[in-house]
Amino acid sequence: MLDLFLRALPLLQKAVLVTLGLGFSSFILGSALGMLVCLARISEIAPLRWFAFAYVSVFRGTPLLIQILLIYFGLPNIGLVIEPIPAALLALTLFSAAYLSENFRSGISGVDRGQWEAAWSMGMGYRRTLVRIILPQALRIAIPPLGSRLIALMKDTSLASTITVVELTRVADQLGASTFRYMDMFLIVGAIYWIINQILTLGQTWLETTLSRRYQ
């Protein structure tokens, strides 16, 4: 297996960068969009709440693979042609935003109601209270599910291989086909995914511990 790994190493190095790029980029963009959806979900404006609920319902209720295929193969039917990597990034962002919005919403809900009331009694408005008081505490509460979502998103990038994005899974499939050593290649790629996600898990644990000490 070592000889196969060394043979595949140049391709794997590029594929890891694509996988990490897709994972982190979609998480960052999805977090921004997810926060907007979250704020719409808890808004007092009914149409915003309905839109946010519908968005979460659609993107959590349908498979990510279907969403990727619709964006890549479906949008050209209405004149929108998107290259494989941007198409995968768009699908992963929209998909992750639905889950991340619920993670943010659970974090905000976990902040004691008294925090709102105390801020309002000091004359702070809704926006100022949200930004200065509520969100810092909500994000600390939401770190575990956010970390889990990032790890899941790194694994979800493997679905981008279905639209010819050359990431880890695609490389494993290509080299497996050319060498007839599918099992070895997928074991190698599986180990790489595991290493990436273990590093992310350690980072999440460190962040949780650091923030917990600050609030003790």
TrEMBL record:
GO terms for molecular function: transmembrane transporter activity. GO terms for cellular component: ATP-binding cassette (ABC) transporter complex. InterPro entries: AA_ABC_transptr_permease_3TM (IPR010065), ArtM/GltK/GlnP/TcyL/YhdX-like (IPR043429), MetI-like (IPR000515), MetI-like_sf (IPR035906). The keyword ATP-binding does not apply. Part of the binding-protein-dependent transport system for glutamine; probably responsible for the translocation of the substrate across the membrane. Its main location: membrane. Keywords: Amino-acid transport, Cell membrane, Membrane, Transmembrane, Transmembrane helix, Transport. It comes from the Bacteria. It is found in: Cell inner membrane; Cell membrane. Residues 16-204 form the ABC transmembrane type-1 domain. The chain crosses the membrane at residues 15-40, 52-75, 81-100, 185-207. NCBIfam families: HEQRo_perm_3TM (TIGR01726). This is Putative glutamine transport system permease protein GlnP.
